[in-house]
Structure prediction request, 303 residues.
Amino acid sequence: MTFSRVGLFHLGVVYLVWSSTYLAFKLGLMYGFAPFWMGATRFIPAALLLLAFAAWQGWRVRLKRAEVGMLALSGAMLWLGGNGLILLATQYVPSGYVALMISTSPIWAALLEGLLHRKRPPGLLVLGLLVGLLGILALNVPKLSQGAPTHLLAFFLLLLSPFFWASGTLYTQRQSSRLEHTPIHPVVVSGYQQLFGGLGFLLLSALLGENWQGATLAGWAVNLYLIVFGSLIAYTSYILAVRLLPLSLVTTYAYVNPVIALLLGWLVLREPLGLWTWVGAGLVLLGVGLVFRSQMRPTPVSA
Prediction:
């Protein structure tokens, strides 16, 4: 089978850029950003740029009342709940560890989808979930055995983050199907979700009294990288990759990103890579692979 070279280029962009965002989170926090202020200054500008581009393309950007509620709630779940908890946890643990914990998102999505449809989960899905959970435990053996409060906090935050991301994704899919008579372009959906998420970040940052002047020039450079490459270029590459390549190939980013993030954290920040890290990484990625495999199997048809 021959794949589109352009599609493979865009998939490579997704591999590299989305993997590097975890390192960028860590660097932004190291260079003086408070977590929620960092989220606000990333997502609000990125959202405005996406919506401006959508308006320039002539796509519908004016929302109806029902759409406002749906996009505000999904944006809060995806970005404030999913990404916000990542930023909080990244203060206390290595970036590679964060990426591996977040790579369990497909497992939670498959589990939640099964619960919503009230279907008995396939055996392969259950196996994938159990293997993924074993991987999470393996990743956390060294730190949890020490009982460090900050690591325990990060552990629970990174369990909740993929749950929020999976919930927001499923909610968006289900609500979008109900609004099919007036479809919204995916770029507009993403723009408003990031806008509402960014406004949530800004509100929480103000309520918590975060320092808005602590970031250094290097910190702002990192955040600019997240806006341009993480929110705009990589998102566009993902959309194009989905259009030009089989979805089963595109979804391999779920396996590749954590590994690259792990190596980037080691290479740039000398984050430790011990035996438990590799064991946990292997089990988590195997669990994700089993979940994907279970979703790709054809559903038996009754005679």
